Amino acid sequence: MTITTMLNFLFPPPPSLFVTAMSVISFVSLANAGFGEVRGKHLNYSKFWNANSNNNKNATGKKDMKLSSKTGMLLLYTPAFLAGAASFWIFPHQSFRSTILQSSVTFHFFKRLVEVLFVHKYSGSMALDSAIPITLSYFLSAATMIYTQQLTLDLPEPQINLLYPGIVLFVVGVIGNFYHHYLLSKLRGKGEKEYKIPKGGLFGFVICPHYLFEIIEFYGFSFISQTLYALSFTIGTTFYLLGRSYATRRWYLSKFEDFPKNVKAIIPFLF
Predict the structure, then answer these.
(1) Quick check: 181 pLDDT over 90?
(2) Between the chain's N and C termini, which has fewer beta carbons within 10 Å?
(3) What pLDDT digit, counting tens, does each position of 16-32 carry?
(4) Residue 165 confidence (pLDDT) above 50
(5) Which pLDDT score is estimated for 14?
(6) How far apart are CA 116 and CA 125, in angstroms?
(7) Residue 146 burial by CB count (10 A; 0-12/13-18/19+): exposed, middle or buried?
C-alpha cells in the first residue's frame, strides 16, 4: 500500500516527533511481544501467570513480586480509563469524530474494569514485572490515541470516511468480547479454580474468540480515528493477540488430551 493510497484512508501524519516515535514503539513492542508468546516467552498473567517459574527472579536474584490476578487486572486498566475520562476535561473543544473516539476508548476500559470486578473469576497471580509494562502500554496508547486525534482538528478529512463503519466494528467487538468473557466466567462453579475447555459461542471454532472480538474492537478504534498512530497500535495489537492465542491453544493441547484438534487459535478454520 503506497503512502498516497494510505492518505485516502488516513489523516496526514502530524508534525509531532512524539506521535511518530509512539507509532513505531507501539507497533514494534506489541509485535515483538506477540512473537515472544509464540516462542514461549509469556507475559505472566492469566493461564501463564506462573510461566517460566524456575526463572522468575529479577536481576538481584530475588523472587519477582506477584499481585493477585484481580488486583493486577485493576492496575492494568484503571490508568487508561482515567486518561480517557480526563480527556473530556483536558480537550473540551472536540469534533464529532474526537468525541466518538474518546467515548469509545473510555468505555472500552470502563467495560474492562466492570468485568474484572463483577464477571471474571480468578485463580492465579500476576507478576509485577508483567503488570507494569502492560499498564504503561494501555495508558500510553489511550492517551496518545486521543491526543493524536486532537492534532487532526484543523486537517482536511480523509477522502474515504470510515467513522461509521468504525462505530459498527467497535460495537460488534464490544458485544462479542463481553459475551465470550461471560461464557468463560460460567465455566467455574463457586470455589472452583481449575481450567476447563470452553464451550458455547465461537469456542467450538476457536479457543480465543474473546481475542478475535478484541481485535475487531481495535480496528473499530482505527476506523473511527483514521490516524497512523491508531492503525500502528491496532496492527501491533493484532500481532500480539495472534501470538497469545497461538500460545493459549498450545497450552490447552498440552493440558487436555480430549481438546478438539479442529478448534483453531483465533481465526475460524484458518489459524
Answers:
(1) yes
(2) N
(3) 999 999 999 999 999 99
(4) yes
(5) 85
(6) 14
(7) buried
**Which has the closest alpha carbon to 217: 95, 109, 72, 86?**
109
Q: 140 exposed, middle or buried (CB, 10 Å; 0-12, 13-18, 19+)?
A: middle
Partnered with residue 125 across adjacent β-strands are 68
| Global pTM value | 0.92
Model confidence at 134: pLDDT above 60: yes
- Burial class for 160, CB neighbours closer than 10 Å (0-12, 13-18, 19+): exposed
188 pLDDT higher than 90? no
For cell 480430549, the residue is: 258
Q: Which long-range contacts (CB under 8 A, 24 or more apart) does 188-191 make?
A: 188/121, 188/123
Question: In whole angstroms, what is the distance from residue 159 CA to residue 149 CA?
Answer: 17
Tell me the helices (H) and strands (E) count for the chain, helix number first.
Answer: 8, 2
Return d(Cα 225, Cα 100) in angstroms, integer. 9
Domain ranges within the chain, ordered by starting residue: 18-49+64-255
The type of residue at 152 is: T
pLDDT for 6 equals 72
C-alpha cell at 18: 512524539
In contact, 207 and 196? CB cutoff 8 Å: no
* Residues 6 or more apart in contact with residue 89 via CB below 8 angstroms: none
Q: How confident is the model at residue 192 (pLDDT cuts 50, 70, 90)?
A: confident
